[in-house]
Amino acid sequence: MEEKTPTMPCVVFLKYLKITGEGVDSQGKFAYATYVEVEAARCPCCGSNMLYAHGYYHRNASAIGRDGARKRLRIRMKRYKCRCCGKCFSPSCNRIGIGKWQRRNARLNDMLSRECANGVSNKAIGQKYRISTSTVERQLHRNHEALLREQLQHSCPQVLRIDEHSIHRGRTKGHKFAVTLADLRHHRIYEVFEGKSSAALESNLRKLKGREKVKVVCMDLSSPFRNLIQRLFPHAKIVADRFHVIRLIIDTFHEFCKAADPAIKWKRGITCALRTKGANLRPAQRQLLEKEFARHPAIQAAYEFKEELCSLLSIKERKRANCIPLLEKLKEMVWQMLHEALEIFKKLGRTIRQWFEPIIRMWRFTKSNGITEGFHRKMKLIQRRAYGYRNFQNYRLRVLMECGHILV
Ligand SMILES: [Zn+2]
To answer: Which residues surround ligand 1, an ion (CB under 5 A)?
Structure first.
């Protein structure tokens, strides 16, 4: 019996695409493929099916297949000519996820977004998939603009945190500022605005949908936006940000210590122990503090006061009735600061008095701010990776992609 000649393996790589062979060019290996037409082609001009073959051509593309393998493809495409109107055309490759003029399939384009969301730089993505960095950037914009538009259709989150941070603009370009709105309920960044002037922020905030439904706005004590927020979010209660309140107290205390004992700034061990929460001190640190307190009783008194104030303000998730004794305690401590303490503490006392209501709301508040501090770290990383952003829109896209959860 005559032996059959082995034929080329006919692997289906994508649906409607058959791999028929392999070739090599200057860039390495590629696969020959044919496009399987499931239904008879029709003329895009007159709709007629009276067609005849007008030759073949090859189309180059990169694609990720059903098995996750990445291949460079040379797809053999048929060209038709219409008998009725004379139009020449080839069937579109939309079925295999390659759009008009495109050289990558949809699965590969999605993969670019995923790589970017994992923090890989454009350059590294470009090298891995053999495309230029500008193509990566263009494709990312294309992938995410539609998703972003959809995300911004949703109304504003009900528990919002407003914060500002600086953006590094690259070498010799300095810094500029951005304001972030974080959704504390779903742990994501909702929007990033350019600039920190009140006028710019007001015009941006006015565009938000569902402003009147916002229930809680969380912000730090130094924020100049307080009046603006009260005006633009009429039904929202302003809550102070615990992280910033505690940090302000510790900084004030530290300034007092430096004034009381100028040599303290050279003693890193003591400085560190003074900043640490009492319950977290190591035995060695405790001994250091005791020695310091023996030398400077004023520091001991201030330290005890600081510990008491910090533990009072760290309380959370209390019911309204349970807050009344805490309120009395805080009032008394503020009075002490204003009338019995040095100027440094008087300043702190005045700040707490100005922000009294937002601060006492912290006891009732349950949401953690740690997550947004994590986002700030992530944003700094985004800036570091790109060596600064000159174009704010590119930066915004990156932040929303990595911290806005639009891929999910
Ligand atoms: Zn036609």
So the answer is: 43, 45-46, 48, 82, 84-85, 87
Tens-place pLDDT, residues 333-360: 888 888 887 788 888 889 888 888 888 8
Ligand 1 centroid – CA 86 distance (Å): 6
What is the whole-number distance in angstroms between the Cα of residue 37 and the centre of ligand 1?
Answer: 19
E strands within 300-400? none
Residue 10's pLDDT band (cuts 50, 70, 90): low
Does the pTM surpass 0.85? The reply is: no
The one-letter amino acid at 366: T
**Domain locations in the chain as residue ranges:** 11-103, 154-240+369-403, 242-363
CA distance 97 to 119: 26
CA torsion 243-181-377-257 (nearest 10°) is -30
Q: How far is the CA of 41 from the centre of ligand 1 (A)?
A: 11
Output the CA–CA distances (angstroms, integers) from residue 249 to 102, 257, 286, 304, 339, in the order listed. Answer: 58, 12, 20, 12, 17
Instruction: Please write the tens of the pLDDT for every residue from 25-47.
Output: 888 899 999 888 878 889 999 99
Task: Using the mean position of ligand 1's atoms as its centre, give its distance from the Cα of residue 102 in Å.
Answer: 25
Phi, psi for 316 (deg, rounded to 5): -145, 170
For residue 247, the SS3 value is helix
Question: Ligand 1 mean position to 60 CA, how many Å?
Answer: 27
C-alpha of residue 280 to centroid of ligand 1, in Å: 81
Residue 101: left if φ>0, alpha if ψ -120 to 50, beta else—which one?
left
- What is the Cα–Cα distance from 201 to 191, expressed in whole angstroms? 12
Determine the 3-state secondary structure of 82 from DSSP: strand
The alpha carbon of 42 and the centre of ligand 1 are apart by a number of angstroms equal to 8
Compute the distance from residue 40 Cα to the ligand 1 centre, in Å. 14
Domain 154-240+369-403 sits in CATH at 3.30.420.10
Q: How far is the CA of 89 from the centre of ligand 1 (A)?
A: 9
Q: How far is the CA of 54 from the centre of ligand 1 (A)?
A: 13
Q: How far is the CA of 98 from the centre of ligand 1 (A)?
A: 24
Cα distance between residue 107 and residue 139, in whole Å: 12
How far does residue 33's CA lie from ligand 1's centre (Å)?
27
The alpha carbon torsion through 145, 150, 151, 152 (nearest 10 deg) reads 90
